[in-house]
């Protein structure tokens, strides 16, 4: 794999139901079509914009298909905890879902785990020494859960941090792949996640070609996991360009 990893692999199950459903027969057909008509290796169109929350130091909104996320960043501000002897800043992350984010009320995944994983994904990209003895708070709210929630949250949070002027080594982009039978599906929707045999998610800094987090669930053969990793890295590179374009457009201001 190209690049290096600054975090040890962890596990994460993005399926809202928490259990894999029995696959319908159409998934075993060679000519089956994804629910939204995409090809197996085609990501959903990404809509990104900054400045979504006026009261925040920085913010961003992300929409990938039916997955819609808004992230607010506050700080750097004086930490409530004693940090007299700390030469680095502190990052706090919180992920939550609106009550209407999922089809069934209370169906959202455990947000404590998501908050922890968001923190791990972002921490390696932030220059913590640039805001000593202070705290940066990241609040991610999932407005609608449509699949690949954590990758979208992470990508949106990185954009919000950049909008807040937080010094970063690089932007952070995240993409996941679901394995269903012999098929690898990038950027899966909720229905696909519910049928998956395994999942792989990579979070990286595209310009530095450095992985900040990798999560794997299920059983994978060595060739399949290498293929899935390359799919994610390629998609992260493309997503990083979209993110930088979004920041440039925001910096240039409204056009007449």
TrEMBL record:
GO terms for cellular component: cytoplasmic exosome (RNase complex); nuclear exosome (RNase complex); nucleolus. CDD domains: RNase_PH_MTR3 (cd11371). Residues 42-166, 170-231 form the Exoribonuclease phosphorolytic domain. Residues 1-39 are annotated as: Disordered. InterPro entries: ExoRNase_PH_dom1, ExoRNase_PH_dom2, ExoRNase_PH_dom2_sf, PNPase/RNase_PH_dom_sf, Ribosomal_Su5_D2-typ_SF, RNase_PH. Keywords: Cytoplasm, Exosome, Nucleus, RNA-binding, rRNA processing. Pfam families: RNase_PH, RNase_PH_C. GO terms for molecular function: RNA binding. Residues 1-18 have a biased composition (Polar residues). Its main location: cytoplasm. GO terms for biological process: nuclear mRNA surveillance; poly(A)-dependent snoRNA 3'-end processing; rRNA catabolic process; rRNA processing; U4 snRNA 3'-end processing. It is found in: Cytoplasm; Nucleus. SUPFAM superfamilies: Ribonuclease PH domain 2-like, Ribosomal protein S5 domain 2-like. PANTHER family: EXOSOME COMPLEX COMPONENT, EXOSOME COMPLEX COMPONENT MTR3. Belongs to the RNase PH family. This is Exosome complex component RRP41-like. It comes from Sesamum indicum. The lineage of its organism: Eukaryota, Viridiplantae, Streptophyta, Embryophyta, Tracheophyta.
């Amino acid at each position: 794999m190209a690049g290096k990893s600054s975090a040890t692999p962890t596990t994460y199950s993005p399926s809202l139901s928490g259990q894999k459903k029995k696959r319908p027969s159409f998934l075993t057909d060679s000519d089956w079509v994804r629910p939204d008509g995409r090809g197996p290796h085609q990501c959903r169109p990404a809509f990104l914009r900054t400045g979504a929350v006026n009261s925040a130091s920085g913010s961003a909104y992300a929409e990938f298909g039916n997955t819609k996320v808004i992230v607010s960043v506050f700080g750097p501000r004086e930490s409530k905890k004693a940090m007299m002897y700390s030469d680095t800043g502190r990052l706090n992350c919180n992920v939550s879902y609106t009550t209407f984010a999922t089809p069934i009320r209370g169906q959202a995944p455990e947000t404590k785990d998501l908050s922890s994983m968001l923190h791990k994904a972002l921490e390696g990209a932030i220059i913590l020494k640039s805001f000593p003895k202070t705290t940066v708070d990241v609040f991610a709210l999932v407005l609608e859960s449509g699949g690949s929630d954590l990758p979208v949250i992470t990508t949106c949070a990185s954009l919000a941090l950049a909008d807040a002027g937080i010094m970063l080594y690089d932007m952070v982009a995240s993409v996941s792949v679901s394995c269903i039978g012999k098929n690898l599906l990038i950027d899966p929707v909720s229905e696909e996640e519910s049928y998956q045999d395994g999942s792989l998610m990579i979070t990286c800094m595209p310009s530095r070609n450095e992985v900040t987090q990798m999560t794997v669930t299920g059983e994978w053969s060595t060739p399949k996991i290498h293929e899935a990793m390359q799919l994610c890295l390629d998609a992260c590179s493309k997503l990083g360009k979209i993110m930088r374009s979004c920041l440039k457009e925001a910096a240039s201001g409204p056009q007449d």
